[in-house]
Amino acid sequence: MNAQQSKTTIYTKEGELQLPLNIVVIGCGLGGLAAAYCLAQAGHNITILEAASAIGDVGAGIQSSPNVSRLLMRWGLGPQLQEIGVKIQALSLKRWSNDEVIGWTPLGDLVDKEYGFPFYLLHRADFHRVLYEAAEPHCNVRVNSRVVSVDPSKPSVTLASGEIIYADLLIGADGVKSVTREYVVGGPDQPRATGDAAYRALIPAEKLLQDDDLRPLVEKMESNIWMGPGGHIVGYTIRAKKEFNLVMMHPDDTEGGIESWTAEGNVDKMIETYKGWNTTVQKLLALVPSTLNWRLMDRDPLPSWIHKDGKLALLGDSCHPMLPYRAQGSAMAIEDAAVLGNLFSHCSDRSQIAPLLYAYQSIRYHRATATQRSSSLNRFIFHKPDGPEQEERDREMRAAKEDALRVARGEKSTYTLTGNSNQWADKTKSDIQFGYDADEEAEKWWLVNGKRLMALVPSMELKPRVMSSANRDH
Ligand SMILES: *[C@@H]1O[C@H](CO)[C@@H](O)[C@H](O)[C@H]1NC(C)=O
Ligand SMILES: *[C@@H]1O[C@H](CO)[C@@H](O)[C@H](O)[C@H]1NC(C)=O
Ligand SMILES: *[C@@H]1O[C@H](CO)[C@@H](O)[C@H](O)[C@H]1NC(C)=O
Fold it and tell me: Is the CB of 97 under 6 A from ligand 1?
């Protein structure tokens, strides 16, 4: 269905006639759906092109940190989030050999209080479904529509069927292995092997509940990270505590391995990898029915997310793919989408498309790049072999934990957490990540630059002026 046909005339906040653009979003993943939703809300005509024959998503656990929950709740998805999410109570950093809790950061209601929005653990497929249900009524979703080539200057895309689709603007939300990125960058990218791979698995939570040592892992609703030499394991419960999600980082031993979310892994090999780890970990891994092995590749930040002709922009993993060490990949894509939608709600002339895209990039680039870098930082922090550096790390994390416990008892914080090895305990870092409001950033940009942008449009004066309250104020 195409909502555009039933839409009445829309005005921008400045009282200009809003110009409904034809926008083609390439890729129906989390980022593509979020972009489609936001741009449709901004009054544009959106077509999503998806290569697969059915809409859906694979993968396992993802996190909706407060900065993302903030946006989703603003989009009216609060009840759905609450239904599909598990509210994370704390982050627990544990030692590989004896299961000791070394670092601990309380989250739960504290996060609500501090940032105004909850922190949820979700199954990626549930999250995708919620976004799809939000976006689909407002845009045209086409499956079996693989984009084989792009003309970034028309702009248009050609599908595998030979069909050519023209638009005013193309948004490349086609993920880590983006085709559209090649057009922006000017060729295929050269990802580097990180030397790590990640096993992923889901265990029915009832299996953990049957074991006294494992039951707390479900009941406490914490995110657990076991740090060990050369690897770490992340485990938390999702799907209304019905499933336990595991991601296990380890040295990449796949010869000529491929970067794929769906490559089958070998359970025996997986268990062998963590052979010396504590009994709790071993018991947990013994419950894994099957696993996927995902080779982790690193990519440098792109010089630009926008094609020079100003009609094609990238979003989410296609322009800033993240290593999963800090669970922020999907958050970044959702924030990108919010900023894009917000900016394009101001669009009253085609000549504004390129400047608005550059505004999107300038608002998002620094943050996404910084997150890209800080998420790889955890790899070096977590994977230290036992020795002086590991002991120093653990000392820092323990001090932060003692401090968190003091605060939880109602006492004063007495320890400086800035730069702490437990990046979640670092309040400065968390404020930057969780306090960020993507919509607010876009509004700020518009307040400073909007008038100048509008002044560049000569035809503007010819358009009917409508007195809105926003307009009268000036
Ligand atoms: C696991 O840790 C506990 C202490 O928390 C210890 O008693 C036990 O020996 C450890 N098991 C292994 C296999 O290291
Ligand atoms: C919406 O965009 C699609 C793709 O560009 C186009 O085929 C369609 O005609 C547009 N609909 C309207 C109402 O402009
Ligand atoms: C939200 O916060 C997380 C904190 O870990 C951060 O990684 C992510 O980049 C933030 N997202 C946005 C859109 O700012």
Answer: yes
In a domain, 2, yes or no: no
- Which pLDDT tens digit goes with each residue over 348-407? 889 999 999 999 999 999 888 887 777 677 778 888 999 999 999 999 999 989 988 988
- The SS3 of residue 191 is coil
Nearest alpha carbon to residue 442 among 316, 328, 330, 341:
341
Residues 218 and 365 in one domain: no
449 found inside a domain: yes
DSSP string, 55-98: ------EEEE-HHHHHHHHHTT-HHHHHHH-EE--EEEEEETTT
Which pair of structure tokens corresponds to residue 21? 């653009």
279 lines ligand 1 (CB under 6 A): yes
- Residue 176: domain span: 10-54+143-190+300-376+437-472
Whether 311 and 287 map to the same domain: the answer is no
Taking CA atoms, 1 is separated from 26, 135, 142, 159, 171, in Å, by 18, 11, 11, 21, 20
Across the beta sheet with 156-159, what order do the strands follow?
147-151, 156-159, 164-166
Whether pTM exceeds 0.90? no
Q: Is 420 in the pocket of ligand 1 (CB under 6 A)?
A: no
Q: How far is the CA of 22 from the centre of ligand 2 (A)?
A: 6
Residues 449 and 357 grouped into a single domain: yes
CA distance 246 to 202: 6
Whether residue 77 lies inside any domain: the answer is no
Spatial separation of the C-alpha atoms in residues 200 and 331, rounded to whole Å:
20
* Band of residue 181 on the pLDDT scale cut at 50, 70, 90: very high
